[in-house]
């Protein structure tokens, strides 16, 4: 068994590479439909997703209505069915080793169950033990602590037996009130220095590569 019986992984820009190549270009397309002439830079998009989450970004910055968000989600689901993001090099080994050594892999993400399940099957040939995604009611999605509470109840785990691995601040909002540690997936390559500094301050650990995370989880790497 590795250092933590349960790894709780984010999906986008933690396990798969999606922000720069999929979600940001797609959102620019959505803006061209719903808010012609509006624009957001890649850096501002990343920072708003970091600080607010996508739904609040769309609502607060561009005034999206619930109906427009529903429309956007439907179009995104159609798009992502034919665009499979690549995994980060080295993350497959972390996931497979955690499972091989008897540990749990749970996913807490703003992606849908369908997307996460497909990506794990295509890239890793396994399924997570549990997925908590965009299909949940809004009050049960990250940054709500509910996914972690459910994981602890379902698998009889203490907070100290779980490590959340994520690239965005909402993971800290979710985990820290429960005493669950968060590791910053600082390998996403999003390139926003202010985000990296804040995450390094907020999180218990920061790893520049999946290989560094693996060394911490399964070896004797000092942190």
Gross geometry: globular
Radius of gyration: 17 Å
Succession of helices and strands: EHHHHHEHEHEHEHEH
Uncertain runs with pLDDT below 50, 5 residues or more?
A: none
Polypeptide structure, described:
The chain has 223 residues and is an alpha/beta fold. The chain contains 10 helices and 6 strands, in the order βαααααβαβαβαβαβα. It has helices at 19-34, 42-51, 54-62, 66-80, 91-100, 113-124, 146-155, 170-175, 193-202, 210-218; strands at residues 6-9, 104-108, 130-132, 162-166, 181-185, 205-207. Helix 1 (19-34) packs across helix 4 and helix 2 (42-51) crosses helix 3 (54-62). It is globular, with a radius of gyration of 17 Å. 37% of the residues are buried. The mean pLDDT is 93.
List the helices and strands and how they pair.
Layout: E1 6-9, H1 19-34, H2 42-51, H3 54-62, H4 66-80, H5 91-100, E2 104-108, H6 113-124, E3 130-132, H7 146-155, E4 162-166, H8 170-175, E5 181-185, H9 193-202, E6 205-207, H10 210-218
Parallel strand pairs: 1-2, 1-4, 2-3, 4-5, 5-6
